[in-house]
Amino acid sequence: MSNLHALPESLHQLGQTRFASLYEGQTEQQKIINLLSLSDFAWNCLQSQPDLKDWLLDDKELANRAVEAPLSNSEINELDDNAALAKLRLYREKYWLKVAFLDLCCANPIADSIAYISALANQLIDSANQWAFAQVAKVSGMPLDDDGNAMPMLVLGMGKLGGGELNYSSDIDLIFSYPRDVATQGGRRSIEAQVFYTKVAQKLIMALNQTTVNGQVFRVDMRLRPFGESGPLVMSFHAMEDYYQEQGREWERYAMLKGRLIGTENRYWDEFYELLRPFVYRRYIDFSVIESLRKMKQMIAQEVRRKRLTNNIKLGAGGIREVEFVVQALQMVRGGREANLQTQSLLVALKELVNNQVMSNKEAELLTQNYLDLRQIEQYLQIFDDKQTQTLPDDELNQQRLCYLLNKDDFDQCLTSIEQTMSQVHGEFEQVIGFESETADPCESEYISAWEMTDVSLMCEPNLDWQAALEDFKARLTKAKIGSRGRDILDKLMPLLLKQLTVTKASSDAFTMICQVLNKIISRTAYLELLYENPGALNQLVALCCHSKWIGEHISRYPILLDELIDPQVLYKPTPLSAYKDEIRQYFLRIEHGDLELQMEALRQFKQTHQLRIAAADATGVLSVMKVSDHLTALAEAIVEQAVNIAWHACVERFGRPANTSDQEKGFAVIAYGKTGGFEVGYDSDLDLVFVHNHDGSSYTDGDKSIDSRQFYLKLAQRLMHLFNTRTASGILYELDTRLRPEGASGLLAINLESYYHYQQTQAWTWEHQALVRSRMIYGQDSLRERFAQIRKDVLCQARDNEKLKTDVVEMREKMRAHLAKGNDDLFDLKQDRGGITDIEFITQYLVLNNAMQHSELTTWSDNVRILADAARLGCITEQMQQELVAAYIAYRSRYHVMSLNQQGRCAPRAELTQHIDLVSQAWQQVF
Question: For the whole model, what pTM was predicted?
Answer without folding.
Answer: 0.59
